[in-house]
C-alpha cells in the first residue's frame, strides 16, 4: 500500500485570520512542519487548524497497521486445516457455508488494536513506543518469558447463530491467569495515550477469526470494525453456524507460545505468509 502523508498548505496568515488552509494526501516521506506568519496568535491558530484537519482526515482513513499476536505456528495451521476440512465435510449443506469463508492459515492471529500510520515518522513513533512498552509493562506481565496459550473452542460475534458473519476460536492462558488480556489492554492504553490508536472498546476482545463472510469476496480482507476501516462494509451473505457450533464447540486448535507482539502491515505478507512486520517486541 502507499504510505500517505498529510501536508498542510496555506497561502499566508494575517493576524488572527487564516486566509487559506487545506489538507491532502501525497506520496512523500516528511511532514511540512514549519509555519510562519506575522503574528504569534496567527501561527498558533494555523497550527491548531492543521492539527484538527489532520485528525479529521485520519479518522476517515482505513487502518494501515495493527498490533498482533501471530498464531500461525505449523501445528496450529495443521489443526486449523483439519477444522476446515471437517466443517466442509459435515456442514457444507448448511446455508451460506463455503470454503471461501475460512481464514488464510498463514495469517491466523489475535488483533490487539488498529492504527492509522500516515507516514514514516508515525511508523517510527509506533516502533519506538512498542519498544518502550517493554520497560513500562511487558516485562512486568510476562516476566521475560513466553505466554503459553491454548486455542480451544469456537464462538460467534453476533446474536443469531443462524445468521453468522464472524466465527472465531477462543484463547485461554494455560495457567488460568488473565495475563494475556492484561497485556493486550495495557498495550492499547499506551497507544491510545500516545494518540496513535483510537479506543474501540473498554477491553480488547481477544479472538482468532477462523471464518468471516468478508472473505467470501475478498480473501485478503481484515475486519476489526467499520470505524477502523473508514467506510461501511458492503452487504454480506451470512451463514448458518448452528451445526458448526454444535459439532465443534470444544474443538482444540492447539497450544502456542506467544513470545512477541508485532506491528503488522495491513494487506501484506512476509516469507512465512504472515503479515509483514514494521516492528516487533519480543518477550524473551
Automatic annotation (TrEMBL):
Pfam families: AKAP7_NLS. InterPro entries: AKAP7-like_phosphoesterase, ASCC1, Cyclic_Pdiesterase. GO terms for biological process: DNA alkylation repair; regulation of DNA-templated transcription. It comes from the Eukaryota. Residues 63-283 form the A-kinase anchor protein 7-like phosphoesterase domain. GO terms for cellular component: nucleus. PANTHER family: ACTIVATING SIGNAL COINTEGRATOR 1 COMPLEX SUBUNIT 1. This is A-kinase anchor protein 7-like phosphoesterase domain-containing protein. It comes from Micrurus corallinus.
Amino acid at each position: 500500500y502507499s504510505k500517505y502523508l498529510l501536508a498542510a498548505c496555506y497561502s499566508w496568515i494575517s493576524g488572527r485570520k487564516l486566509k487559506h488552509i487545506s489538507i491532502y494526501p501525497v506520496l512523500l516521506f516528511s511532514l511540512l512542519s514549519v509555519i510562519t506568519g506575522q503574528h504569534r496568535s496567527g501561527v498558533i491558530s494555523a497550527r491548531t487548524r492543521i492539527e484538527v484537519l489532520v485528525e479529521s482526515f485520519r479518522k476517515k482513513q482505513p487502518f494501515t497497521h495493527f498490533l498482533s499476536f501471530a498464531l500461525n505456528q505449523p501445528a496450529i495451521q495443521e489443526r486449523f486445516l483439519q477444522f476446515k476440512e471437517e466443517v466442509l465435510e459435515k456442514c457444507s449443506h448448511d446455508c451460506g457455508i463455503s470454503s471461501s469463508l475460512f481464514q488464510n492459515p498463514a495469517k491466523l492471529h489475535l488483533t490487539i488494536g488498529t492504527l492509522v500510520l500516515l507516514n514514516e515518522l508515525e511508523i517510527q513513533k509506533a516502533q519506538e513506543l512498542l519498544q518502550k512498552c517493554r520497560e513500562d509493562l511487558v516485562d512486568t506481565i510476562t516476566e521475560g518469558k513466553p505466554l503459553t496459550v491454548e486455542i480451544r473452542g469456537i464462538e460467534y460475534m453476533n446474536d443469531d447463530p443462524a445468521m453468522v458473519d464472524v466465527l472465531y476460536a477462543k484463547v485461554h492462558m494455560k495457567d488460568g491467569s488473565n495475563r494475556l488480556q492484561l497485556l493486550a489492554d495495557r498495550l492499547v492504553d499506551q497507544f491510545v495515550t500516545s494518540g496513535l490508536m483510537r479506543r474501540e472498546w473498554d477491553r480488547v476482545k481477544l479472538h482468532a477469526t477462523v471464518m468471516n463472510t468478508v472473505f467470501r469476496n475478498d480473501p485478503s480482507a481484515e475486519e476489526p470494525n467499520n470505524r477502523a476501516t473508514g467506510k461501511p462494509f458492503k452487504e454480506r451473505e451470512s451463514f448458518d453456524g448452528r451445526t458448526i457450533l454444535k459439532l465443534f464447540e470444544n474443538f482444540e486448535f492447539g497450544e502456542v507460545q506467544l513470545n512477541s507482539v508485532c506491528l503488522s502491515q495491513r494487506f501484506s505478507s512476509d516469507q512465512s505468509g504472515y503479515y509483514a512486520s514494521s516492528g516487533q517486541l519480543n518477550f524473551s
